[in-house]
Amino acid sequence: MKRIFILVALIAGMIGQAQAFKGKGDVKGQVGATFQDGGNGIAVIADFGIGENISIGLGTNYILNADRYLNFKPRFEDRADVRLRFNANIGNVFNLDKKWDIYPGLSLGLRNFGGHLGSRYFFTNGFGLFTEFSAPLSRYDSNVIGYEHYNNQFMFTIGASFNL
Predict the structure, then answer these.
(1) 55 — phi, psi (to 5°)?
(2) Cα–Cα distance between 126 and 52 in angstroms, integer?
(3) What is the C-alpha R_g of the chain?
(4) Handedness of CA 19, 83, 88, 119 (dihedral sign)
(5) Are 87 and 109 in contact (CB under 8 A)?
(6) Residue (of 107, 142, 132, 101) closest to 33 by Cα position
(7) How far is 128 from 31, CA to CA, in rounded Å?
(8) Is 61 exposed, middle or buried (0-12, 13-18, 19+ CB in 10 A)?
(9) Do the beta carbons of residue 111 and residue 148 sit within 8 Å?
(10) Cα–Cα distance between 88 and 56 in angstroms, integer?
(11) 112 exposure class (CB count in 10 Å sphere: 0-12, 13-18, 19+)
């Protein structure tokens, strides 16, 4: 019984110290699975805190099981995208628990200018989960067909978040 109490106290202590966004100097890394029409893939994101509620970052997506289009297999450049990101980390604005952050933002990628809305919750000081919805606000090509539709549409991402 004593061991169980000590284990629960240790876990509660780690959870109590978790913080989703610390402001200037904070560095977050996120790895997740992406889901979109035509294929699912992976995303890797890095965000760097530059102010109390502002972060900038870099994100990349790669579609693993992209659908064939007209019997042609998509190439690497058809499946990949890289985006510069700007986030407004507003968890503290809404007086949310320090372990939880909500971050709307904008992104400038190889295929479009887009927006995203994400949320992350940290269980410990170093590990949490995140989810994010993103969509293009303005495509560079208004007539996207075939592979141009990949990484240029509504996308849902879920995965792990880390304090770096």
Answers:
(1) -140, 150
(2) 19
(3) 18
(4) negative
(5) no
(6) 132
(7) 11
(8) buried
(9) yes
(10) 9
(11) buried
Q: Residue 108: which of 79, 139, 146 has the closest Cα? A: 139
pLDDT digits 0-9 by tens, 114-148: 999 999 999 999 999 999 999 999 998 878 777 78
Give 77's contacts (C-beta < 8 A, 6+ positions apart): none
Tokens 């510069």, residue located: 84
- Write out pLDDT tens, residues 19-76: 677 878 899 999 999 999 888 999 999 999 999 899 999 999 999 988 776 677 888 9
Residue 38 CA to chain centroid, in angstroms? 20
> Which among 158, 153, 137, 134 is positioned nearest to 38, based on CA atoms?
153
* Whole-structure pTM value: 0.82
Say what the pLDDT of residue 19 is. Answer: 67
Bigger pLDDT: 149 or 50? 50
Contact 19, 98 (CB under 8 A): yes
Residues with Cβ within 8 Å of 59's Cβ and at least 6 positions away in sequence, in order, are 43, 44, 45, 46, 82, 83, 85, 107
